[in-house]
Amino acid sequence: MEVDVTENKPKQILVGTDGSPDAQRALLYAGRVALQSGHENARVRIVHAVDEAVLAGTWGVMYDLSGLEEAGNEILHAAMKIVQEAGVPADRIDAEVRLGRPAQVLVEASGDADLAVTGRRARSSIERLFVGSTSVALAASSHCPVIVLGQDQPSPTPPGAGVLVGVDPSGLSEQAIAFGHDWATRAEWGLTLLHVNRSQPSWLLGSMPSKEQSAAQSDASRGGVAALAERVGAQQAKIEVVQGDPADELIGRSADYGLLVLGAHRGNPNLVGGVIRGVLTHARCPVAVLPQG
């Protein structure tokens, strides 16, 4: 199933909640997205997952499911209040408790959504290795674009912000550019398309490329990015081609943007590429991931 970004006006914005500060930030962000230009009729769907794994306690004692559902309803009530305080009317908010592992529940729910929003947990050195299993699983397997939030990141439309799209030759970039172009247009932001030619060590190449060779490579990359931009109507985007490490370049620029957009292969979360994992962990702005394939 391909992510359809030809009509980027979400009719349903999905956000999971467990009552944590990460979830609260995601709820606030989702509420603000629902109020953006072009999203006036979007609904916010809040889902709280009750993991079956917590139903079996020590020595096989089963917890009372009704009690967990009651606690879940309290979490949902607080979540709905956050979205309403963001300005979304109550009649545009849906909330439900679902049984299952959070990542699986959200991936399944994403099949009916146009956009998903999730917070990430990566405070300790160990957590940073995994970014947050739910966030990675959703970003890897979602049926709709996913926006992953770090700590203390801006609202969807901070003044003077822009959209940065990471562009590569893998075939995933066209939809990422289309998504970024649509977001930038509605938010009245600038759009930058960044392609990074990965640096290779001289011992691997045998010798350093000449200035002429580097210039030719940059020109070819710029032409490829321009062709992709033209196909989705983003001819006015600023194109940057640099040499370096893709993750480092994207992370280093992220603080200057309101949204960073990346395409990704849909599949096993354990196979999410190192660039995306690194960006999700260290980016200084929200990251939109478009799983495809």
UniProtKB/TrEMBL annotation:
Kindly name one Pfam family recorded for this protein: Usp
List residues of the UspA domain.
11-149, 163-291
Coiled-coil stretches, from where to where?
Answer: none
Q: SUPFAM superfamilies annotated for this entry?
A: Adenine nucleotide alpha hydrolases-like
Looking at the record's lineage, which domain of life comes first?
A: Bacteria
Q: Which family does it belong to?
A: Belongs to the universal stress protein A family.
> What name is this protein filed under?
UspA domain-containing protein
Give the originating organism: Parenemella sanctibonifatiensis
